[in-house]
Structures are given as structure tokens and as C-alpha cells.
Amino acid sequence: MKAENPNKSVLSNLGIANLNEMQIAARDVIIKEQNILLLSPTGTGKTLAYLLPILQLLDEHIPKVQCLIVVPSRELALQIEQVWKKMGTAFKVNVCYGGHAIETELKNLSTPPALLIGTPGRLTDHLARKSFATESIKTLVLDEFDKSLQLGFQEDMNTILSQLPALRKRILLSATSDVEIPDFVQMESPVTLDYTEEEKSDTLSMKLVLSPEKDKIESLFHLICSLHSEPALIFCNHRQVTERICDLLNKKGIYAAYYHGGMDQDDRERTLIRFRNGSLNYLVTTDLAARGLDIPEMNHVIHYHLPGKESEFIHRNGRTARMDASGTAYILQFKDDKMPDYIPNDIEVLSVSTGNPLPDRPKYQTIYVSGGKKNKLNKSDIVGFFLQKGKLDTSDLGLIEVKDFISFVAVRSPVVKTLLANIREEKMKGKKYKIEVARSDRRD
Asked: What φ, ψ does residue 53 adopt, rounded to 5°?
């Protein structure tokens, strides 16, 4: 027996009133067709666009994996899982990705989920171990499949598809239309939904900042100081450069953090949490943060390096000027360097003054709590504890994220010391939890 008409209660659980045009079209096509290519920019709701029809395709009487979602990054896998859980379905979901112990995943897969999300390398590992059966997998989603290919996962993806004997439906997603579908995917005459042109925003402005020095750190510093303390993403092409620039910015008094694929998964997640909740305003990152991550939209994207491909440039810029909002992409270029062909010749040159003050420090600090959902803690418990025992006002609290065994709370910086002093000896729901400034957010 398949779930019927889940949209109303699911949207209510997600806090969404209505689907957008792309999501409605995708829902109808995914239900009816076998091969679907969905092209829509970052931030337009592609995840929900395919999860809703997948929910209708699942059969509650099949106790095996029925749908496999393959993604290029751990962060995207976790984000999709989060959306599915918020939908409040009766179907189990599990996530598999590298960078943490496989034993937990093996234990989870012993009771098979209906929906399995994973990165290519970890999924091929599980297939080799026969951790889950594949004969009931009729639906395959390759989310950001072009990014998976770009990252060198073609062999793993080929291996995965070769072991799905019952596959009936293939759904491929990308944020740009400049994509090629590899032969091994076996997409015959796909129905294409292309929203990339419709969603291009006229509210994105591009500005060129010319650096007199080949090392552009001084120009970057002055540009950030001119942004009136508003958050920004700073894109680089190499992991080592993100760390170097972050270190130099911090030495100059700008509170920044770096983010790239070489970091431990735990550190990556905590950095994103701080960026989401306003404890961190400047994130120096590789293209890992260009798409597929749950981070807030912002007014400023800075290209410290320009990517080699126009498609990646578009993905980066997708972090601003989304859904009718305005935003600016700044290109930081050494004055003697040649500009890539995809940059318009008439781009405005911005002259950045050198006398601006340092940006304000972040409004919030992130507080770590050593308990989460599995400890029977929820947001209401934490809010009540911080207000009653911590003697805070509701205006002192920002975003709260409750994970399985830990939680993170954004608290206004001026009241953090008072909060920690007030709750030092207190118990929450009868239990003493470790509550402190998150290790990644400790400041001098």
C-alpha cells in the first residue's frame, strides 16, 4: 500500500504553505516518467521537488531499500536526511558517508531503510560488504551528479548503477544547464525540466576589485571592511589558500573561519552551524560551499580566485541574489592578470577605500550542550532552561540546532558569561549536561 496525497501534512510539517512552480512540475513528472533531468539553481527547493513524489512511490510493505540517493558530499547527504525527517513520513531513512566509523552505518542498515542517502565511495563500500539488498531499489536519484563526476566519482557511480537490477526510475539533478549525462547512467530520452534561465536573477550585480599587488590579501581586507559588517563568503580554489587567508584575516582583526573538504567531518559541521547562526560572519571556502549546503543567503560573495569553469562561477554566485533578493559578487583580481572569457567586458570596477573600520564582531556565540534528541531533549527544553535557570531573555537566543546526542545554541555574546555562571550547577530535565562555549567558537 503506497502513501497517498502526502503533500498537505508534509508541507505543514515543513512550515511551507505552497510549492513553487518548479516543485509542482517536478512532482508530476517524477511520478509519471522513468527518466527525469531537473535543472534548477541553488536555493530553489530541488530537494523537496523530488522527495515529495518519492514519498508517493514508496511501499510500506517492502522492508528493504526502495530508493537510493547518491550525492557528492556529506553535507548534502545530511541536509537531504534532515528534510526527509522534517517531512514526518513513516519511512525510515539512513545516511552513509565517509569520514566516520562504518560500524554505526552497518548497525543502522541491519534494519533496512526505505530511503538510503550516501556518497559514492561509502556506498560502493557497503555494496562490497553486501550491507543492504538492492533488488527492491526501483528509484535512483543522482543529486548534483555533475559535481560527483567533477570530483572523480565516475567509477564508483558506475559500480553503484551496475548493481541495481530492478531500477525503473532515474532522476538526475543539477544547478546549471551546462551538463553532460554519462553513458553508464543509461538515461534514455529523459524528460528535462530546465528552470535555469527562468531563475536567473537580474538583481545580481558584479563588481571588479583590482589589486595592485599579486598577493591580494590587503585588497581583500579593505573590501571586507567596506561591507558594513555584513556576512560574506570568500571563495578560493585551493584548500591551503583558504587556511592561509583565514589566518591572515584573523591576524588583521577580522573574525573568519575556513571550510574545505580536507577538514574532519565534525569540524566541517560545526563551522557551518556557526555560519548559519550568526556566530561567524566570514567564511573562507573552496567550491565545497558553492552548492548543496544549508547556509543562509547573503548579500556578498567574494571571488578571491576565479574558478576555471563558468558553471562553478554561477554556482558560487547562487549563494546571493536568490529568489528576487539582491546581492553582489565581487571579483578580486591582480591588475595585470587576464580575465576569463566568461566575465563580461563591461563589468563595473569598484574602488575600495582604505579607511574603513574593522567589521563588528559576530552578534552571537555558539553554546555547546552535551545532549540531544536521543537524550529526550528538544528546543523547548533548552529554551526553558536557558531562560529560567540561565536568567536570559528570549531576545538573547538565536538559532538552536538539536542533533542526536549534542545541541548548539546561538546566544548573544554579551550575556554568555552570565549564562554559564548561572547554570553551572543546574540540571536540565533532572540531568547534568556539559554546557560551554563550543570549542570552535572560543574567542580571546
From this structure: -70, -30
| Residue 363, C-alpha cell as written in the block | 552578534
**pLDDT(117) > 50:** yes
- Do residues 121 and 74 touch, judged by C-beta distance below 8 A? no
- State how far the Cα of 201 lies from the Cα of 143, in Å rounded to an integer: 23
204 bridge partner residues: 327
Beta strand ranges found along 97-246 (DSSP E) = 115-118, 139-143, 169-174, 191-194, 204-211, 232-235
Helix (H) or strand (E) run with residue 24 in it? helix 21-32
Helix (H) or strand (E) holding 162: helix 154-162
CA-CA distance, 57 to 54, in Å (whole number)? 5
Cα–Cα distance measured from residue 38 to residue 282, given in angstroms and rounded to the nearest whole number: 32
Please report which confidence band the pLDDT of residue 324 belongs to, taking 50, 70 and 90 as the band edges: low
**Predicted structure pTM score:** 0.67
Q: Is the pLDDT of residue 3 over 50?
A: no
Residue 63: the pLDDT is 94
**Choice among 23-37, 62-76, 238-252, 280-294 with the minimum mean pLDDT:** 280-294
43-47, 87-91, 244-248: segment of lowest average pLDDT: 43-47
What structural domains and CATH numbers belong to the chain? 7-194 (3.40.50.300), 204-349 (3.40.50.300), 364-441 (3.30.70.330)
The predicted structure's pLDDT at residue 359 = 95
